Amino acid sequence: MTKQFGAKKAVDDLSFTVRPGIVTGFLGPNGAGKSTTMRMILGLDQPTSGTALIEGRPYRELKNPIRTVGALLDAKWVHPNRSARAHLQWMAASNGIATSRVDEVLRLVGLSEVAKQKAGGFSLGMSQRLGLAGALLGDPKVLMFDEPVNGLDPEGIVWIRKFMQRLAAEGRTVLVSSHLLSEMALTAEQLIVIGRGRLISDSSVQEFVDRASEASVRVRSPQLDALRSALTSAGLTVKEPSSLDQVHPTLVVAESTTEAIGEIAARNNIVLHELASQHGSLEDAFMKLTGDDVQYHGAGTDNDVSGQAGGRSDSMGGALR
Ligand SMILES: Nc1ncnc2c1ncn2[C@@H]1O[C@H](COP(=O)(O)OP(=O)(O)O)[C@@H](O)[C@H]1O
Ligand SMILES: [Mg+2]
Known about the structure:
By secondary structure, this protein is α/β, with parallel strands linked by helices. The chain has two domains: about 5-210, P-loop containing nucleotide triphosphate hydrolases (Rossmann fold, 3-Layer(aba) Sandwich); about 215-280, Alpha-Beta Plaits (2-Layer Sandwich), CATH 3.30.70.120. The protein has twelve helices and twelve strands. The strands form three sheets. It has a six-stranded mixed β-sheet, with helices on both faces. The protein has a four-stranded antiparallel β-sheet with strand order 10-11-9-12, with helices on one face. Strands 1-2 form a two-stranded antiparallel ribbon. It is elongated and about 75 Å long. Residues about 295-320 have low confidence and may be disordered. Magnesium ion binds near residues 34, 35, 146 and 147.
């Protein structure tokens, strides 16, 4: 799909498939086009070109939308003076869903105790739970959540994460967006990464991290000097870890493999006590792949992206393009 807002291409020839049974993360910096994509999937925004299909059909052609797909895009749209239960009952009644299901979803999201309180007084975490209850009302096979953990406390984040994983384990299709790779790495199995509306990566979380993060190797040896010169002679970059631990002298070798280093050591008759590959941080991996996109936004006219993914985009200013 492509979505053009005036001169702005919010979603640019984006194509992907979301599979059932796992949580799929939809990752990208703020302004990357995640919400626009989800709105188009749900028929709330009209794509400039392309289509989104849910179980083979565009949203507007679904025979029973609420029983096919549930979504939580903006948790705060509930009527502030309605109770949680009344809000869900109204949704259920207008969709031919039994009242018993209302109590069931309230229990599922842990809101039974506060079901009679006005939703307007709910905390963000409670509003998110109510939004989830609404999404689950029709017991749909497909679920979409747009940045559901934004603004939640750590306990709420863990709860939502586990909840989404449980829904996926039940065989449902779960698509959840976030601008935080660290959160997605803990929640999702599959990862669709976008930047500036375009697809950057579509793979498992592990593949994405492996590909994006710089691989280095940690090697420990009682013959550290001999090892260092053998590695340097082989053209490798050797870093000394800052550790003062003289009992376990260790080197870190940039952009190499355990195989290569093991063989160099063997050729030089060097004893190794430890040989392990290590990866850079998840956020480094994310920045490496989307960094250009972040800079673009920092230099542009969008206000909605300020303050995300570190301040480095701001400092680059408009001079980049
Ligand atoms: N209704 C709209 N009119 C004009 N521009 C929009 C509109 N909705 C989103 N955009 C722009 O499209 C881009 C993608 O926005 P969005 O889908 O909200 O990104 P994300 O959810 O990844 O943060 C942003 O640059 C945003 O400013
Ligand atoms: Mg968004």
